[in-house]
Design goal:
Elements (H helix, E strand, L loop, with lengths): L1 H6 L2 E3 L5 E3 L5 H12 L17 H8 L2 E6 L2 E7 L5 E4 L11 E3 L5 E3 L2 E6 L4 E5 L20 E6 L7 E13 L2 E6 L11 E4 L4 E16 L2 E15 L3 H8 L6 H36 L2 E4 L3 H10 L4 E4 L2 H12 L3 H5 L7 H27 L4 H35 L7 H13 L7
Antiparallel strand pairs: 1-2, 3-4, 3-6, 4-5, 5-9, 6-7, 8-9, 10-11, 10-13, 11-12, 12-15, 13-14, 14-15, 16-17
């Protein structure tokens, strides 16, 4: 019996690799294995058996994880302190003026207040009353690529579900510490902890649908363009905790503030999309051809006296770009109701709607020119040139207000510097020359 036990022990071979040896004493084998694991040459995840996550660790961590329910859905969160400071993803509470927190034991609590928020990192720190079990944060330097991790969340309503994986990559994007991992997550996992094998928090799991302005079935909508599955590293927590001790706001105040930040994203996105469509529209107009109708019956007596009728050709690009441009008009009113209470947003909307109206005037003039007399078609062409140029001028003015709005919230917006540069470029390209 004694011999059987010793046969499965490990020893450190001369080339530094861990190998099995018969009759290796248990104490010597343990020391050799530890020396190999912590020598700094190989991570702990390379040690046979080191990726085993013990059920006791999972259960202890699960007691600090909560369900967050709002009228719009649910997500996860976890306690960072015994006195009820709770961390989750900002998008879990997006648009919610009320939320309920449920603990592992089935107790339910309302959110007292929001302590700190970083929309850029998608992190939100909230406070609830009571005393709770909490999770400790890992040292960011010890969370390494290849280390085993597990995630606890509530995918599709299956509460307190654990999934296991490995750290796949670590990087910094736009100042945010990002963790890429192989553990599977789904809607409902957002805000849950990414945990090391010993139950410490290495990051926050995020399942996020990034919304973009897309053209679908004849209209523009804000639809999910990509699904992002990633984690925010625990090094981002310390600043958030420091901010939480200094200020607070109600959930309703957070929702109102968040709406203003999202409006800043929307106006910059609409400005860029309008500039893109206006450029396409100008190109479509430049491709139009005008011919004199040779059919006396089609011209009629009036057109024959004025030199014939104008027939537009090569209209495919113009028709497609005009259709898309007209469809953009309703997007701002649909997704930013009441946003015009902000003076800069109100003035942006005025200038943007004026740009849309002038471009639509140019589209109407081209439609009217098809089949009109050559003389009238000539007058309409001058209307097209003037209206399109004025549309560019108004859009440039709108971009100036969009730049001011984005500047106000740039600390909370991703790629804010690049967005501001694009707004300046649009504003500076006001002088439009018709092709």
């Amino acid at each position: 019996m004694r011999r059987t036990i010793f046969r499965t022990r490990y020893r450190l071979s001369q080339d530094g690799k861990c190998a099995t040896a018969k009759r290796q004493r248990p104490f010597v084998a343990a020391v050799a294995l530890a020396a190999w694991a912590w020598s700094g040459e190989r991570p702990l995840s390379d040690v046979p058996g080191a990726d085993v996550i013990r059920p006791a660790v999972v259960e202890r961590a699960a007691r600090a994880v909560v369900v967050i329910r709002t009228p719009r859905g649910q997500g996860a969160g976890f306690f960072l302190s015994r006195d009820g400071w709770l961390l989750t993803n900002a998008h879990v509470l997006s648009g919610a003026e009320a939320a309920e927190i449920e603990t592992r034991e089935g107790r339910r609590f309302p959110v007292q207040f929001v302590g700190a928020c970083s929309l850029k990192q998608d992190l939100l720190l909230v406070k609830i009353a009571g005393t709770f079990e909490f999770l400790e944060c890992a040292d960011p330097q010890t969370v390494r690529v290849g280390d085993p991790v597990f995630v606890i969340g509530h995918p599709y309503g299956h509460n307190w579900t654990m999934s296991k994986g490995y750290i796949a990559a670590k990087r910094t994007e736009d100042g945010c510490p990002i963790i890429q991992y192989s553990a599977d997550i789904s809607p409902g996992n957002s805000g849950g902890p990414i945990l090391t094998a010993d139950g410490r928090v290495g990051g926050v799991a995020t399942y996020l649908e990034r919304r973009a302005i897309q053209f679908n079935d004849g209209s523009y909508t804000l639809d999910p363009s990509t699904v992002l599955k990633f984690g925010i590293g625990c090094e981002a927590f310390s600043t958030l905790m420091a901010d939480a001790r200094r200020g607070r706001m109600s959930l309703a105040e957070f929702t109102a503030w968040e709406r203003r930040v999202l409006t800043a994203q929307l106006v910059s996105g609409i400005t860029e999309k309008t500039h893109e469509l206006l450029t396409d529209l100008a190109k479509g107009m430049a491709q139009l051809t005008v011919e004199r109708s040779a059919d006396p019956a089609a011209m009629g007596r009036r057109h024959s006296r004025s030199g014939g009728a104008a027939v537009l050709g090569n209209t495919e690009a113009f028709v497609q770009s005009a259709h898309r441009f007209r469809a953009l008009g309703a997007l701002l009113d649909q997704h930013a109701p009441g946003a015009e209470r902000d003076e800069d947003v109100r003035r942006f909307c005025e200038r943007w709607r004026s740009a849309m109206a002038r471009a639509n005037e140019a589209i109407d003039a081209i439609v009217a020119a098809d089949g009109a007399s050559l003389r009238r078609a000539g007058r309409l062409s001058r209307t097209v040139t003037d209206a399109l140029q004025q549309s560019y001028v108004e859009l440039g003015r709108a971009a100036g207000f969009a730049e001011r709005i984005v500047s106000r919230y740039q600390a909370h917006l991703s790629d804010a510097a690049a967005v501001l540069k694009r707004m300046r470029d649009i504003r500076q390209s006001m002088g439009f020359r018709h092709p």
